[in-house]
Amino acid sequence: MTIPTPATAYEDRFCAFIDFLGFAAAVERGVWAPSEIVSAMRKAAKVSQGNEEIVRVTQFSDSMILSARADDVWGLYTVVNTAFFLAVELAAHGILLRGGVSKGKMYHKDHLAFGPAFIRAYKLEQAASTPRIILDRNIVSEGPWPSVMDHQELGGMQTHNLPEDNDGWRYVDYLSPHHVDEFDDGQTGLVRHYEKLRELVKAQKDSTDPSLRTKYGWLDKKLTAVGR
Q: Which position has the higher pLDDT, 37 or 105?
């Protein structure tokens, strides 16, 4: 295989680096049966490949890379939308996500991904610290966004889909009741989603591990904020 040189291979791309929190530890402890792991990974693959004409996907172990061309008006929208559905679908299996979305130079084809945008997304994932996927500064305001979205729709997306957290980072929200229409069974599905998240919080928020208390403490506050 010929490895392309950065000078000729880089494209301007949106890149999301996503980590499946607690996955490795759960596997080591035998929390999930192999059948559950396979089911969760198949679901992640199905969701992430649903828009494969726009988004490229690479998954390895408990991490996933999504990327899309920055000059595609559907690129950022599709990366964000895919991240949302991943968060919802994997939460049903007890897997929370942490990640970062960046924009910059990147090569991503097949299972090979590298470049400044990838490195930045990885660093953002570390900065997120809690179970959320944060977006780099100015990405939301600069877009591009699909021209079919009017000013009101864009405003609604920023408010409900990509809200600004207390520390100033915008993140992919998977907790707002405004997402009810995204569930196949509507309100029933949303309630089941909340119940699963509350179950995860209950199991971990009093952990002796400070990092776990931080992660699940954040989720606890978000659930309380939406009355759950």
A: 105
> What mean pLDDT do residues 14-42 have?
75
Claim to verify: residue 163 and residue 201 sit in the same structural domain = no
> What is the token pair recorded at 28?
């080591």
Nearest to 179 by CA among 168, 192, 166, 167: 192
Its domain, for residue 214, covers 176-228
Which has the closest alpha carbon to 103: 38, 17, 194, 223? 17
The overall average pLDDT reported for the chain is: 86
20 DSSP 8-state letter = E
Residue 60: pLDDT band (50, 70, 90) is: confident
Please indicate, yes or no, if residue 130 is contained in any of the structural domains. yes
Same structural domain, 105 and 83: yes
Per residue in 64-116, pLDDT (tens digit) is 899 999 999 999 999 999 999 889 988 988 889 999 999 999 999 888 899 99
Q: How many domains does the chain have?
A: 2
The DSSP result for 148-185, as a single string, is TS-HHHHHHIIIIIS-B-TTS-EE-----GGGGGGSTT
Q: Are residues 97 and 168 in the same domain?
A: yes
Above 70 in pLDDT, residue 143?
A: yes
- Is the pLDDT at 12 greater than 80, yes or no? yes
Closest CA to 94 of 21, 34, 29, 190: 21
* Cα-based distances in Å from 106 to 66, 74, 75, 109, 139: 11, 18, 14, 10, 16
Integer CA distances (angstroms), 104 to 1, 119, 123, 142, 143, in order: 25, 10, 14, 13, 13
Are 113 and 79 in a shared domain? yes
